[in-house]
Amino acid sequence: MRVPAVGLGVLLLALGACSSDGSDGSGSGSGSGDAKTTVAQFLPHTEAVRFKTIDAPEFEKAVNASCPECGVILQNAEGDAGNEQRQMDAAIGQGVDAMVVDPVDGQALAGVVNNARQKGIPVISYDALIQDVPLDYYVSFDNVVVGQQIATSLVDQMKALGTTDKCLVVIKGDAKDNNASVFWSGSEPVIQDAGLDICFETNTPAWSAENAQREMDQAITKIGKDNIGGVYSMNDSMAAGIVASLKGAGVDLSQVPVTGQDGDTAAIQRILVGEQYMTVWKDTFALAKEAAKVALQLANKEDPAGEQSVDNGSGDDIPATLLPPVVVTKDNIADTVIKSGFIKVADLCTGPYADACAEAGIQ
């Protein structure tokens, strides 16, 4: 199956115990100088909590489970594209055997990726797609479908509430992240077909809650809080800032659905109490495990069996594994993120959320 280009949401190399080279950024890992095989993961930022709580540790866990003697390098660029390139250059200098990269800027890595591959180091694009350069593999979710799911859920809820005649606020992710474009390529046709009026539209630097809150404040000032019928938020961390802005303005959130993506614990709590309407859950445990499997295969000169392919503008078809995303609303929390073990009940149903959990049958 061939799908449009998707942007890597950068998994950055974590330089582990073997990374005493003074490279920039936060890193950790279980690498060692005498490891037979060393794989490296590079993540883009920590604005989304999943990168430090799931993607990095689960990648390392999966590598160690399959290859206890292997080294693992973990690195996070903290939102700095230049930092990510330096981290990757350092790993290339160390002679790693495979690199898993979620780019800060999918357009900025052609040089370092070419350098790695010329030295025989395979490069796997992770979560977001690195652009305009040949790659060895891509591991992500079907991000066009993610965009379709966000928009479809929002349109359906606005129809149910009778607010499709009001303004839609669209707050997208960082314009430097190709994933933002891919999500929107799935969302925009749905919104256009529904005839919704986009009165405010912007991209959010670093996907941060703080920036999204400021943007939502601007939208309220421009449109007026009573004229907003729904808010399209491209992920959960931005939704947190958007919800804070709406609450601060005295908006009735039961009448203004806010979307999200990732399915983190805080977002599910907001959904439970009616502050956020939905999220698209992407099982990043499964994603990290798949990336570790592919990295070890390529490090050992094996060919992963990619059942799909993507076009990243390089002229090559990039073999890919694209995992399915899942829409989560209050009605199916128990059957999705809880049943799968992605979120623990003890973490979700704390303090002010205990009663909401009980009402939703989550115990």
Relevant terms:
single chain; 363 residues; alpha/beta; Rossmann fold; 9-stranded mixed β-sheet; 39% helix; 18% strand; disordered N terminus
How would you sum up this structure in a few lines?
With 363 residues, this protein is α/β, with parallel strands linked by helices. The protein has twelve helices and 14 strands.
Describe the structure.
- By secondary structure, the chain is α/β, with parallel strands linked by helices.
- It has two domains: 2-141 and 283-323, Response regulator (Rossmann fold, 3-Layer(aba) Sandwich), CATH 3.40.50; 143-282 and 326-359, Response regulator (Rossmann fold, 3-Layer(aba) Sandwich).
- Helix content is 39%, strand content 18%.
- It has twelve helices and 14 strands.
- It has helices spanning 50-66, 81-94, 110-118, 143-161, 178-194, 209-223, 236-248, 265-272, 284-299, 334-338, 345-348, 354-359, and strands at residues 2-3, 26-29, 38-43, 71-76, 98-101, 123-126, 137-141, 167-172, 197-203, 228-233, 279-281, 308-311, 317-323, 326-328.
- A nine-stranded mixed β-sheet has the order 1-12-13-7-6-5-3-4-2, with helices on both faces. A three-stranded parallel β-sheet has the order 9-8-10, with helices on both faces.
- Strand 5, helix 3 and strand 6 (123-126) form a beta-alpha-beta unit.
- Helix 6 (209-223) packs across helix 7 (236-248).
- The two termini are 40 Å apart.
The CATH topology name of the largest domain reads Rossmann fold
Largest sheet: 9 strands, mixed
Q: Give the radius of gyration.
A: 20 Å
The total strand number stands at 14
Work out the helix count.
Answer: 12
How many structurally independent domains? 2
β-strand amount: 15-25%
What's the CATH C level of the largest domain?
Alpha Beta
Mean pLDDT: 91
